[in-house]
Model the fold of this input.
Amino acid sequence: MSDIIKLLPDNVANQIAAGEVVQRPASAVKELLENAIDAGGTRIDLIVKDAGKTLIQVVDNGSGMTETDARMCFERHATSKISTSADIFAIRTKGFRGEALASIAAIAQVELQSKTHDSDLGTSIIIEGSEIKEQEVVACASGTKFTVKNLFFNVPARRNFLKSDNVELRHIVNEFERVTLTHPDIHFTFHHNGNELFNLPSTTLRQRIIGAFGKRMNERLVPIEQETPVVNISGYVIKPENAKRTRGEQFFFVNNRFIKSTYLNHAVKAAYKDLIAKDQYPTYFIYLEVAPDFIDINIHPTKTEIKFEDERTVYAILNSAIKNSLGKYNIAPSLDFEQNVTFDISMPKPGQEIKMPTISIDENYNPFKSKSVSGGGGTSSSFKMPKAVSFEEDEVSANLDFLDVIKESTINVKDADIFTESETLEQNWNEETKVETKQKFYQLHNKYILTQVRSGLLIIDQQRAHQRILFEQFLSKIEERKIETQRLLFPLQIELNASDFALIQDVLEDMNNVGFDIAVFGQNTIVINGLPIGVSESKAEQIIERLLEELKHSTNQTAANYQQKMAMFMANSASIKSGRKMEEEEMEHLFNELFACQSPDYSPSGKPVIIKMEEDELDQRFERRK
Ligand code: ADP
Ligand code: MG
Done:
């Protein structure tokens, strides 16, 4: 048999390597941005068309390349960043493998223009599928411009494998965010299909985070800082009450390189233990600095996974650094998260007057009296008193307003089974004891409602019960398109980050169909003119944020599912919360409403609402014989 092994031609080898390095447009974006940073650019522009499928362009004002380097950079294993194997353990640049450009050039049509600062003329090269098509001397700006057209033009399988523009764009935004978060000193811009998505001037890290993720980040961030011989930690974590329901913005950077680490993520989550619910995720922007020889970043071609020499120590230090910061910012470790308590811990601005927090209470207000009797409104009274902790006032007012709504829409539940059951029970009870004339409701820990039914004791979770009631009411109104819009006196502007802005435009119509009145208001900003009745203004932003998060992570976006989600958000936000004292009348009302629901047993998110303790069980526990 003759010899059969041969060396692969370069273009084939490059194409194979490209399979690892360039999985989608976002990977090319990442590599080009990183090269621009390594070249010392102070301004980097990213221009993308069709989510990078047809065009990715990165322009920098960095060092530029000589004619020879411009030609060399497309060779495999061609790099200016390391030269000996020892260098691999002292890496301070983003790149070092010398693979990216060779890979990109193997699977796209690439144009390069580059000029060093000390030469008058630059070089222009066109390369397609690893083949140089054209090279000439040109007049151009100092720095480098890479234009990548028709990615995967010669790998149809890859091209067909790409997701929708929306998804691919989101990947690019993610990469862009990661890169911009490591270099707040660099001015970045990002245009997609002619629209400016980001314009992030050179600034501090905190301002960069706010620039990329929206102004609302400002009051949510808690700085972390820890210097040890092993690792220096800095960055920001989120206040527990701003934790999200979905894994959103979570960033680890090691020596200014974005990495993924489930292990370190666990260290963060553990620091939030007891501070956030199990199904919530803290946002974080955490920067670890270690000696380069302490880590191995070479274990993955995309360099997003690294190995620490002593991972456990890093885990422990990180965990305690976060606990420390959360502690320092006075975020007590034993909050009851169903209580929805918000602390305002932002620092007053210089010269800002410090006001005592106030709460308005209409002492005469009774949600069960008709409007004419109570004199209307829930919180319109001017009665004010100082308080220590600022409970979400609007929450309370929303609830009160809402009870009004409920009252108006009260369904006659006399015929409902449960009602008959308890009535019958009352009769029996009366006969037995001759004391009770009416069903009693008792509130436990301002959280549970206890009441008796024929066969035993019912324990009802007040918050979940109310969620269930509101959920069904909202859902049926949404389905019947009957949900009314309450116009806001002062329209609310919300600034979103670019990808959220793109996302919300897709669902604006649906939202407006369920009672919102939202319009686009210029660059990355929407304006809320009206809200579905029952949603308090203070909750509007939160609802929109959570909806966006859901949209980002959900694959099932059918109309029905969407309506359910909306109803759920609205119900959860407007419901009575645990921790609120309830009058007996209110409890009775809630009880009746609950058992008029189609599925009283479970909250909209599937958690139990009612626990029943049978009389038999009680008897048994008291060791009573029948
Ligand atoms: P690596 O970044 O791992 O070195 P690349 O294939 O990404 O490998 O780039 C190869 C080389 O091309 C780099 O080492 C650098 O010298 C040069 N280069 C790439 N992009 C730029 C740029 N924007 N400005 C200046 N030089 C660049
Ligand atoms: Mg590179």
Observations:
- The longest strand covers residues 485-495.
- The CA atoms of residues 139 and 273 lie 59 Å apart.
- The longest helix spans residues 165-182.
